[in-house]
Each structure stands twice: as structure tokens, then as C-alpha cells.
Design goal:
This protein is of the alpha+beta class and 642 residues long. It has 2 domains: 247 residues, Beta-galactosidase, Chain A, domain 5; 376 residues, Glycosyltransferase (Alpha/alpha barrel). The protein contains 16 helices and 35 strands. A hairpin with a 5-residue loop joins strand 11 and strand 12. Helix 4 runs antiparallel to helix 16 and helix 11 packs antiparallel against helix 12.
């Protein structure tokens, strides 16, 4: 089954439950609902990354279309105001599709058709909106603009405007605030006005307990007379001051997206996810990085290392993968990789350990020993630092790593307190530590470097302390033992070099299947636990309390299927079962984002999708698991062994 990326919403509610996203490769994006109605402060047609890939700034919120013909006036836009929706242009929306770029098809009662396409110029903070109209009417487009952080809804700041008359008949406006940008058209005439749209409401932000009302400014309008068929473009940009070349841009972007699909022999669902995988890859300085999720995340070290194999290796984008690994290695500090690269935060204990997993995967896929040689000093420095002490951890006498509260991936915080502190010796951290030591043993042998394997043996022997014979699985934490049933032990069981034996892996998989597995990934806590929270909803504090206390994370389906394959030695039966386990996510069932996979789901049925509409490790781990565990790619990776 190929996911259908065309929609015919029958109501406003149905149309606002799906959101589209396009990106520009430098952190900027355009996004809204399939109705064109903004329900988030993050929605807009031009969210520019002023310091790529960060400092994302909302500039163009929307374009409101209106056409006047002999039979009347028709508005195609839609906004939520206190107590009402106005106008209700969704009633004229016949179809939305994203194949390969977002396209809206409107048809009015008098037979006028309007096709609207939205795309971004790759590598630029430039959005192009193309209109193809058939009918007889006066067509107007009213831009709503702002100049604010994309995080918080707020009133548009004061703006100066300067009309622009272009060669060839085009016109537009240059808007000056704390960021200058232009709106220009090749065929539509710009008319200066100066209107305020007050009390716009963003329903998704209201539900999330965040600022959800703002006032937007409209500097003027574009208008053009249509008699028969007419096509024209509107360009919003901080880098271009002319619509020249818009036609070539759209052709180039459609071709670029089609190329991303790759080998036509691969499953169509995988190929479609491959185009979404590209949206996370961004330029950072002279290197490259991976955005953790849209709309609101920066590039995070942990997320980048976990998602890289699926996003870039299964699609054979080895040069990009190499660039990302080099970027993060170059940002290493005190043996740690940045957690939030944009915020320059190093508050993580596992990002550097996932780095070994990612480099090992890279070598398994590419057979590129050159990068291993290049990164070897950094990897050796990480091991040397972790074997003593880092700013957030220390190596105990038994060789195991003990870390401070809130430094694992379960790091949500409410009122200054970590919800799931996991201080001490965590099961997946020490499995990652063992895996890192074994990876270094292999790489050292390949490069002819001296390496003492004694520490790995010590860690492997000490790891038996995590085994809980009463439940037949791992303690989540020792030395103060925590018997909570969480998916962290599944991560430990899935690693290429795991300190667990086959029987232990089978026990972990069986328990995870019984208590954690859902159609959309693994819960972060067993529903049998008194601390379980089954709904991810409410304000920031309520959501953070649920974040790792039962909420489902799709990315965990990757470690689960891999551990399951390990427990069965990759039999055909298990591969078929893995295919079925991944099917809901591959088929894009129950998603928010068009063609992509969201961040989390409620732990309780009906498993509502929540969080970011498009999450890097959700997409990446589904792609990796599909490629390796279903299609058998792991069998061809000689290094990927217990």
C-alpha cells in the first residue's frame, strides 16, 4: 500500500488535523494545515533561518486569496477569530496533495479554478507561491506578515515599506523591521494599503497552554485581472528582490525531490519517507547537521546520531552522513557531544555514546575506512574521558558509568525537578558504553592501533548486575535498583555489540511485547506501573509529566524490531512479523504531518498523534528498521554482530 498524499477534507475539523511541511536545507521552512489555515504560532509560508540553521523567524504568515467575478466574491482563506471562522475558504477547497510539493486546488460555484503551489528554493530563505487560474475574475492576494521568533505568537512589530517596480512589469514591496524582506510578483500589481488583522487565534497553541493570539499586519495587496487562463508567482524572500527565475526554481525543486526517492525498485512507502528524510538535513557553517524535529527543535546530538543511519545511510547519502559526523565530532567538548547544538548545550551523557553506534553503522554501510581514521582521535578522546569523569558522569570501580540526574534521553523537567531523573547507572547508557568500547576494539584492529580490551571485558562482566531474575529482564537503574519496565532495556538488547546473551534478549523482547508494544512504537513505561500516564495533553507541565511516563515514541520501534531479530536470528518468519509491526508507521496511519512520522503518541488508545509533526529519529529508525530488519540489510553488514 502506498500512502495517499492527496486529501479531500469534508470539514474544517478534518482539514486542520493534517499539516504539511517543506524545508529549505538551512533550517527555514513553510508549513500550515492542508486547508491553509494556521493553527500554530509555528505556521507560516516563510519561516526564515537568519543564522542557519537557527534564529528562525516568522516573516510571511499567510496569503489570503479573494476573487471577484460576475457571480460574486469568493474568499479562499480561512482564519480563526474569537467565536468564529472567517472567511471560510475551505468550503471551496476541492483537493490538497503533496506530490511532490504542496498543492491546493480550489473551485468556486461559478466554475473558476485556482491551483496554488508552495515551495522553497533549496539553500535559500525564499518561498515561491505559484497560482494557475482559469476563469474570468479580478484576483487579489493579501499577505499577512510579521517579524518575530517562530516560538511565540505576538503582535507584528512596526514596519516600513518601500514599493518596488520591477523590470518586465512585476512589482512588490520591501518591508523593513528588525529583519528586511521582500514580497514581489512577476505579473500581479502591488497596491499599498496597511491593514491590521486582529485577534488571530491558533487553536493548537491554546490546547498546548501557550500564547495563542496575535495581530498580523498586511502592508497591501497583489491583484491581477484574469480572462481565461493566467499563471503568476509571488516570491517572499530575504535574499531575492525579484521574481525572475521562479519558473526554473519550481522545476528544479520538483526534480530534486523526485531524485531523493532513489531506486524505483524499493517499496514506494520507503521512497516517500526518503523525501521526508531530506527535510532534516541542514547546513551548519561549512558542515552539515540534522534538525531533531519540526517545528520547534534545533539540531540535537543524541537525535542526530540515532537518526543518521536511517535518514542518510539507508538512502546511500554517504557524503552527507560523513559531513554530519564530522560536524558533531568538531563540536566535542570535555568528551561530550552537544545535546542542543543551537543552544550550545552539553547536558547529555548518551549523545557521545550514540556517536560510536552511528560511526559503526556508517562504516558497515559505506566501507569507508577513511572517515574512521579521521574520527579515531575524537573517539579515543571520548573513551578516555568517559573512563574517568565527564561534567555529568564518572566511571565507577566496576567500569560502569554513573551519571547525574536528567542526562539520559528521558530528560523532561517540571518546576526545576526532573520527572524521570534516572540518576546513577542506567541500563542503556552502560550498554552503549560497552558497545562503544567494542567498536573501538574493532576500529583499532582495522587501523593497526594499540587497544586494550580489558575495560570492555570488565564492563561486560559488571553488566550482569542489571539482570533482574524475578522479572526476567533488566533493572532500569542500579545501584539503587529500579525495576520499572521501560524501553531502555530494549535499546540495550538491540545494539551491535551487546553485553546480553540470547536468552536475556528473548526475555526482554517478550516483556516489551507484552507491556510496551503498540501499533505506533513502544510506551516509555508499562501501563501496569502506578506512575504511568496514558495521555500526552494539557499545558507544558502536564505534557512534560507524561513525556517519558507512558507516552509512545515511534523511534523505539527500531530498537525493538532489531532486538526481536536478534532473538530469533533473523528468521524469515520474524522478518515478516517485523514488516507487519512497521506497517502502520510505513503506511503513515494516524499521523499529523503529511508524508512523515510524528514525535509521540498517547500511551492509551486511540493513540492520538502528538508533539512535533515530523521527527527525525521517528522517520530515521523506521527507515533503518525497514531496510535492515525487514529487507535483510543487516545480514550484509558483517560488522553488525553480537
Amino acid at each position: 500500500m502506498t500512502p495517499d498524499l492527496s486529501f479531500h477534507p469534508k470539514s474544517y475539523q478534518e482539514g486542520t488535523e493534517r499539516e504539511w511541511l517543506i524545508t529549505n536545507g538551512i533550517g527555514g521552512y513553510a508549513s500550515s494545515t492542508i486547508l491553509g489555515t494556521n493553527i500554530r504560532s509555528y505556521h507560516g509560508l516563510l519561516v526564515a533561518a537568519l543564522d542557519p540553521p537557527t534564529e528562525r523567524t516568522l516573516l510571511l504568515s499567510s496569503l489570503d486569496e479573494e476573487l471577484t467575478s460576475e457571480s460574486g466574491r469568493y474568499n479562499l482563506a480561512c482564519h480563526q477569530y474569537p467565536g468564529t471562522l472567517y472567511p471560510q475558504g475551505f468550503r471551496h477547497l476541492e483537493e490538497f496533495r503533496q506530490d511532490p510539493i504542496p498543492t491546493f486546488l480550489y473551485r468556486t460555484e461559478d466554475g473558476t479554478s485556482v491551483e496554488k503551489k508552495v515551495f522553497m528554493a533549496h539553500g535559500e530563505n525564499t518561498t515561491v507561491v505559484r497560482y494557475d487560474i482559469e476563469g474570468s475574475c479580478l484576483f487579489k492576494v493579501v499577505p499577512l506578515v510579521n517579524c518575530r521568533s517562530f516560538h511565540v505568537a505576538s503582535r507584528s512589530p512596526p514596519m516600513d515599506q518601500e514599493r518596488m517596480d520591477l523590470e518586465g512589469g512585476g512589482s512588490g514591496v520591501r518591508l523593513r523591521s528588525w529583519c528586511d524582506f521582500v514580497l514581489v510578483s512577476d505579473r500581479a500589481r502591488y497596491v499599498r494599503e496597511g491593514l491590521w488583522f486582529n485577534n488571530l487565534e491558533y487553536e493548537a497553541e491554546r490546547q498546548r497552554g501557550l500564547a495563542w493570539r496575535e495581530d498580523a499586519f498586511s502592508p497591501g495587496r497583489f491583484e491581477v485581472q484574469v480572462d481565461g487562463r493566467l499563471s503568476f508567482n509571488i516570491v517572499a524572500s530575504i535574499e531575492r528582490d525579484s521574481p525572475e527565475g521562479a519558473e526554473e526554481l519550481i522545476i528544479r525543486e520538483e526534480e530534486r525531490i523526485k531524485r531523493l526517492e532513489g531506486n524505483k525498485k524499493r517499496d514506494p512507502r520507503f521512497r516517500r519517507l526518503a523525501t521526508r528524510a531530506d527535510q532534516f538535513l541542514v547546513r551548519r557553517g561549512d558542515g552539515k547537521s540534522i534538525i531533531a524535529g519540526y517545528h520547534w527543535f534545533n539540531d540535537w546530538g543524541r537525535d542526530a546520531m540515532i537518526s543518521l543511519p536511517g535518514l542518510l545511510l539507508t538512502t546511500r547519502r554517504f557524503d552527507d552522513a560523513r559531513a554530519v559526523l564530522a560536524t558533531f565530532a568538531g563540536a566535542m567538548k570535555d568528551g561530550l557531544l552537544p545535546n542542543d547544538f543551537g543552544a550550545k548545550g552539553y547536558n547529555t551523557i548518551d549523545a557521545a555514546l550514540w556517536f560510536f553506534w552511528s560511526v559503526h553503522k556508517y562504516c558497515s554501510y559505506s566501507r569507508d575506512a577513511g572517515l574512521v581514521r579521521e574520527l579515531y582521535p575524537a573517539m579515543r578522546a571520548i573513551v578516555e574521558r568517559y573512563s574517568r569523569e565527564t561534567p555529568g558522569s564518572f566511571s565507577d570501580e566496576d567500569g560502569l558509568i554513573a551519571s547525574k540526574p536528567g542526562l539520559t534521553w528521558m530528560d523532561a523537567k517540571v518546576g526545576g525537578e526532573f520527572v524521570t531523573p534516572r540518576a546513577g547507572k542506567a541500563c542503556e547508557i552502560n550498554a552503549l558504553w560497552y558497545n562503544a568500547l567494542k567498536v573501538m576494539e574493532v576500529f583499532s584492529q582495522d587501523l593497526g592501533e594499540d587497544w586494550d580490551g580489558e575495560l570492555a571485558e570488565k564492563v561486560g562482566e559488571s553488566y550482569h548486575k542489571f539482570w533482574n531474575p524475578d522479572s526476567g529482564c533488566l533493572f532500569d537503574l542500579i545501584d539503587e535498583k529500579d525495576a520499572s519496565v521501560r524501553p531502555n532495556q530494549v535499546i540495550a538488547a538491540s545494539l551491535p555489540f551487546t553485553p546480553l546473551d540470547g536468552d536475556q534478549i528473548r526475555g526482554i523482547v517478550d516483556l516489551a511485547t507484552e507491556e510496551l508494544l503498540t501499533p505506533y512504537g513502544l510506551r516509555t513505561l508499562s501501563p501496569k506501573d502506578p506512575a504511568y500516564v496514558g495521555r500526552y495533553e494539557g499545558g507544558p507541565a502536564e505534557r512534560d509529566r507524561a513525556y517519558h511516563q507512558g507516552t509512545i515514541w515511534p523511534w523505539l520501534i527500531g530498537p525493538y524490531t532489531t532486538a526481536r531479530m536478534k532473538s530469533s536470528h533473523g528468521s524469515k518468519k520474524e522478518r515478516d512479523e517485523a514488516r507487519e509491526l512497521l506497517r502502520p508507521l510505513m503506511d503513515l496511519e494516524g499521523q499529523i504531518g503529511v508524508g512523515t512520522i510524528c514525535e509521540v503518541f498517547d500511551g492509551d488508545e486511540p493513540y492520538r498523534p502528538e508533539g512535533c509533526i515530523s521527527q527525525a529519529w521517528s522517520v530515521g529508525e523506521v527507515m533503518r528498521a525497514w531496510s535492515e530488519d525487514v529487507m535483510g540489510g543487516a545480514k550484509r553488514q558483517k560488522r553488525d554482530e553480537v
